[in-house]
C-alpha cells in the first residue's frame, strides 16, 4: 500500500470537511436553493395552417409542427401530465400567405388565432402565451416591417406588432411575448392593450435580452422563418453586448413589461443573473433555444452525455442564475422526469 509516511501527520481541520454535507441523495437535494417544478415550464408549440397534419422537424428531435386539429389531442396528453403553460408560434405553410407586413400573423383564420381559440376551448386552465413577431409571416423573413433599403422601419413595425399582440389577447391569449427586438414595441403593445381594455388581464413578457448568434437554426427550420436577405444583427443583440442587454432590460421594464426573458440560456447565464438582479421585482425567464436543445440531443446520440442528466444540469444552471420561468423543448420530458426520482 502506498503511504505518505515521508509527510508529517497533519491535524484534520474541522473547517476543511465539506463532504458530510452531501454524502447522501437527500442531502444533495437539500443543497438546492430551489427545485425545478412543473409550473416553471413553458412549452413551445409550432402551429401550422395545415389543420390536419403533423410533421416532424428533422433538426429539432421529438418536436413536431401541428395543424390545429392535431394540436388538441397532443396537448391534452401533456395537460394530463401537468403541463401549465404553452407559447405559440404560427407557421403558415400554404402558398402565397406571406407578405411584407406579416398579415398572416393575426389573420382570424390563420394558425395562431385558430390555435388560441381551440386551446382555450379545450383547456380552460391552460396558460396560453403567444410569441409576437413577424418573421414567420413576412415575405422577407425579417421580424419587423422594412424600409426599401432593408432596414427596420421602427414606427411601422411597432404599430404592426402592437396590433398583432392586441389581436392575440382579444382571441383569448393570456400573455403576449414580443421577440422581434424592435425598439419601443413593449410600450406600444402595453398601450394597445390598455386601449382595448385588456391590459389588466394580459401578461406582457418581453424578450428583452435576445442575442443574435448561431443557436436559432432548428427553430428557423421549424418555423420557416429564415431571413431571405441579410441577418438579424441590427436588431438582436451582439453576444458581447452586456451593457446593451442591461439597457434593454431597463427600457422594457420602464415601457410596461410584466416579465422579461433572456435568450439563449446556457451561454448567457451571466445575463440571466444580471436580469434577476436588475429586474428583481419581476419574474425573469430564460429560453433554452432550439440550437441548445439540438446540441444536447446530438451529444447524447454520440454517447458523449446522458440526455436526462445533462438536461437536469442545464436547467439547474438556469435556476442558480435566478430564472423563475423556463421556456424549454424538454418540457414533455420534464413532466415525466419530475414524477420520477430526480438525478441527485
Ligand atoms: N423572432 C422569432 C423567434 N422567436 C423565437 C426564436 C428562437 C427560438 C429557438 O431557437 O428555439 C426566434 C428565432 C429568431 O429570432 O430567428
Ligand atoms: Zn422574428
Ligand atoms: Zn419570435
From TrEMBL:
Gene Ontology cellular component list: cytosol
Ligand binding (Zn(2+)): 133, 135, 143
Catalytic activity: 2 5-aminolevulinate = porphobilinogen + 2 H2O + H(+)
Keywords: Heme biosynthesis, Lyase, Metal-binding, Porphyrin biosynthesis, Zinc
Single GO molecular function: porphobilinogen synthase activity
Function: Catalyzes an early step in the biosynthesis of tetrapyrroles. Binds two molecules of 5-aminolevulinate per subunit, each at a distinct site, and catalyzes their condensation to form porphobilinogen.
Name of this chain's protein: Delta-aminolevulinic acid dehydratase
Species this protein is from: Ogataea philodendri
Amino acid at each position: 500500500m502506498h503511504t505518505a509516511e515521508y509527510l508529517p501527520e497533519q491535524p484534520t481541520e474541522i473547517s476543511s470537511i465539506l463532504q458530510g454535507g452531501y454524502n447522501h441523495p437527500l442531502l444533495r437535494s437539500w443543497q438546492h436553493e430551489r427545485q425545478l417544478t412543473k409550473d416553471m415550464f413553458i412549452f413551445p408549440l409550432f402551429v401550422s395552417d395545415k389543420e390536419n397534419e403533423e410533421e416532424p422537424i428533422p433538426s429539432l428531435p421529438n418536436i413536431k409542427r401541428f395543424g390545429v386539429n392535431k394540436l388538441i389531442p397532443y396537448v391534452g396528453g401533456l395537460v394530463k401530465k401537468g403541463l401549465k403553460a404553452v407559447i405559440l408560434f404560427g407557421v403558415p405553410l400554404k402558398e402565397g400567405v406571406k407578405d411584407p407586413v406579416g398579415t398572416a400573423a393575426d389573420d382570424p383564420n390563420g394558425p395562431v388565432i385558430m390555435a388560441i381559440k381551440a386551446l382555450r376551448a379545450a383547456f380552460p386552465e391552460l396558460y396560453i402565451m403567444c410569441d409576437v413577431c413577424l418573421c414567420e409571416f413576412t415575405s422577407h423573413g425579417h421580424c419587423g416591417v422594412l424600409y426599401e433599403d432593408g432596414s427596420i422601419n421602427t414606427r411601422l413595425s411597432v404599430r404592426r406588432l402592437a396590433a398583432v399582440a392586441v389581436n392575440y389577447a382579444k382571441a383569448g391569449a393570456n400573455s403576449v411575448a414580443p421577440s422581434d427586438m424592435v425598439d419601443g414595441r413593449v410600450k406600444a403593445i402595453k398601450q394597445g392593450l390598455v386601449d382595448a381594455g385588456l391590459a389588466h388581464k394580459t401578461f406582457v413578457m418581453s424578450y428583452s435580452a435576445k442575442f443574435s448568434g448561431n443557436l436559432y437554426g432548428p427553430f428557423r427550420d421549424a418555423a420557416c422563418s429564415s431571413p431571405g436577405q441579410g441577418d438579424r444583427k441590427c436588431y438582436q443583440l451582439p453576444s458581447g453586448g452586456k451593457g446593451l442587454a442591461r439597457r434593454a432590460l431597463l427600457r422594457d421594464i420602464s415601457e410596461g413589461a410584466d416579465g422579461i426573458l433572456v435568450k439563449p440560456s446556457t451561454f448567457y447565464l451571466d445575463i440571466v443573473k444580471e436580469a434577476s438582479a436588475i429586474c428583481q421585482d419581476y419574474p425573469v425567464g430564460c429560453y433554452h433555444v432550439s440550437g441548445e436543445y439540438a446540441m444536447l440531443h446530438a451529444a447524447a446520440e454520440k454517447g458523449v452525455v446522458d440526455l436526462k442528466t445533462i438536461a437536469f444540469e442545464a436547467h439547474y444552471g438556469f435556476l442558480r442564475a435566478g430564472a423563475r420561468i423556463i421556456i424549454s423543448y424538454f418540457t414533455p420530458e420534464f413532466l415525466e422526469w419530475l414524477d420520477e426520482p430526480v438525478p441527485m
